[in-house]
Amino acid sequence: MDTACMELVFDDRTVIAIDTIAVENEVAVNMYQRSELNWLI
Prior knowledge:
The protein is an alpha+beta fold. The protein contains one helix and two strands. The mean pLDDT is 80.
C-alpha cells in the first residue's frame, strides 16, 4: 500500500517522515500565490 510518506533513517537511527501529499499541496498553494503576484514584477 502506498502511503505517500517517505522515511529517512540516519546512521544514529533517528527517523524523519515526510508526507509527500502535504508537501505537494503546499507547493501548489505557493505557486498559485506566486502567479497571482507576477503582475507586480
